[in-house]
TrEMBL record:
<dbReference type="Pfam" id="PF01339">
    <property type="entry name" value="CheB_methylest"/>
</dbReference>
<dbReference type="Pfam" id="PF00072">
    <property type="entry name" value="Response_reg"/>
</dbReference>
<feature type="active site">
    <location>
        <position position="298"/>
    </location>
</feature>
<dbReference type="InterPro" id="IPR001789">
    <property type="entry name" value="Sig_transdc_resp-reg_receiver"/>
</dbReference>
<dbReference type="InterPro" id="IPR000673">
    <property type="entry name" value="Sig_transdc_resp-reg_Me-estase"/>
</dbReference>
<dbReference type="InterPro" id="IPR035909">
    <property type="entry name" value="CheB_C"/>
</dbReference>
<feature type="active site">
    <location>
        <position position="202"/>
    </location>
</feature>
<keyword id="KW-0597">Phosphoprotein</keyword>
<protein>
    <recommendedName>
        <fullName>Protein-glutamate methylesterase/protein-glutamine glutaminase</fullName>
        <ecNumber>3.1.1.61</ecNumber>
        <ecNumber>3.5.1.44</ecNumber>
    </recommendedName>
</protein>
<dbReference type="InterPro" id="IPR008248">
    <property type="entry name" value="CheB-like"/>
</dbReference>
<feature type="domain" description="CheB-type methylesterase">
    <location>
        <begin position="164"/>
        <end position="354"/>
    </location>
</feature>
<comment type="function">
    <text>Involved in chemotaxis. Part of a chemotaxis signal transduction system that modulates chemotaxis in response to various stimuli. Catalyzes the demethylation of specific methylglutamate residues introduced into the chemoreceptors (methyl-accepting chemotaxis proteins or MCP) by CheR. Also mediates the irreversible deamidation of specific glutamine residues to glutamic acid.</text>
</comment>
<dbReference type="InterPro" id="IPR011006">
    <property type="entry name" value="CheY-like_superfamily"/>
</dbReference>
<keyword id="KW-0963">Cytoplasm</keyword>
<feature type="modified residue" description="4-aspartylphosphate">
    <location>
        <position position="56"/>
    </location>
</feature>
<keyword id="KW-0378">Hydrolase</keyword>
<keyword id="KW-0145">Chemotaxis</keyword>
């Protein structure tokens, strides 16, 4: 089997050495070039094009966003963003994900040895998943049309017990690699009268606030990073904070969320399984669970619990996934009632509400 060929682009010589050494030591991965900036990368691309590019976003001569957009126009290629945990880095990384990057890994300003210990395996796994990603060029990623629904289709919550069917609906979405673009396509298509949504997107700490703020600026619905005891109401999407789990709870006639610390589940915090299991207990037949593009199996077990509790379940179909990993495993376990294209997901959400 041909090795995955990787190019590393980072202005720090130390970071280039660490990343190239880490990836080059992994079976089935070959680092073809490690260069200091996009200008040098462009020269190398004239003679050899890699399968995956690991890219810093803040560099001299040409920034990573400009380079990424050029790549996605010329020859769409899986790009993994390697960014620092700073507010500025988070905002820039959101631009990169919107421009077509498939994933983000964080690098420390200091302590590269600790990075190797804590995140080395994650970086290798992310690069392997990126190599399998199915990408579309920027011109192909057209926004889905906004779906219209009359306001009387989403009614206030009743006072029924949590596990009985009510007119109040909750939608729980779990996603990972490729999910930032997929969520943007779904959420921007939803009208203000949409049911309340709770979302886990695998993303490092400090990045989710910038992600939620960006979506909020694009959507008719409100999108925010979840805070403890936030209400789940029509027209609002709550996104789990990076590094913390998100759970749904029934509080009398209302749904609220809990934001909790705790150990990683399926190597993730937040975990899609944790969210789905809480939705199964608290909403049951009032809930719709959706699993979308991503690598691994997080969410498969929890989605099955939700289906067994009477909830409706959907998966993004293979053709529209960037990485058909999480949905595939959920389908394999019998957790999914139907698989649908990404472009149909907003309409499915509104049909669930009505």
């Amino acid at each position: 089997m041909k090795a995955i060929q990787v190019m590393v682009v980072d202005d720090s010589a130390v970071v280039r050495q660490v990343l190239a050494g880490l990836l080059g030591a992994a079976p089935g991965i070959e680092v073809t070039h490690a260069v200091a900036d996009p200008v040098l990368a462009i020269e190398r691309l004239k003679t050899q094009w890699p399968d995956v590019i690991v890219l810093d976003v803040e560099m001299p001569r040409m920034d990573g966003i400009t380079f990424l957009k050029m790549i996605m126009r010329q020859r769409p290629t899986p790009v993994v963003i390697c960014s620092t945990l700073t507010e500025k880095g988070a905002q820039t990384t959101m631009e990169a994900l919107a421009a077509g990057a498939v994933a983000v890994v964080t690098k420390p300003r200091l302590g590269l040895k600790q990075f190797l210990h804590d995140s080395g395996n994650d970086l290798v796994a992310t690069v392997r998943a990126a190599a399998r990603a199915k990408l579309r060029s920027a011109t192909e990623r057209e926004p889905a049309p906004t779906v219209k629904l009359t306001a009387d289709a989403v009614l206030p919550a009743g006072s029924a017990p949590a596990m009985t069917r009510t007119t109040d609906r909750v939608v729980a979405i779990g996603t990972s690699t490729g999910g930032t673009q997929a969520l943007e396509e779904v959420l921007t298509a939803l009208p203000r009268v949409s049911p309340g949504l709770v979302i886990v997107q695998h993303m490092p700490e400090k990045f989710t606030a910038a992600f939620a703020a960006r979506l909020d600026s694009l959507c008719e619905i409100e999108v925010k990073e979840a805070q403890n005891l936030d209400r789940v109401i029509p027209g609002r999407a709550l996104i789990a904070p990076g590094g913390r789990h998100l759970l749904l709870r029934r509080n009398g006639a209302q749904y609220v969320v809990e934001v909790r610390d705790g150990p990683a589940v399926n190597r993730h915090r937040p975990s899609v399984d944790v969210l789905y299991r809480s939705v199964a207990r608290s909403a049951g037949p009032n809930a719709l669970g959706i699993i979308m593009t991503g690598m691994g199996d997080d969410g498969a077990a929890g989605l099955l619990e939700l289906r067994n509790a009477g909830g409706s379940t959907l998966a993004q179909d293979e053709a529209s996934c960037v990485v058909y990993g999480m949905p595939k495993e959920a389908v394999r376990r019998g957790a999914v009632q139907r698989s649908v294209p990404l472009g149909a997901m907003a309409r499915e959400i509104l049909q669930h509400a009505s």
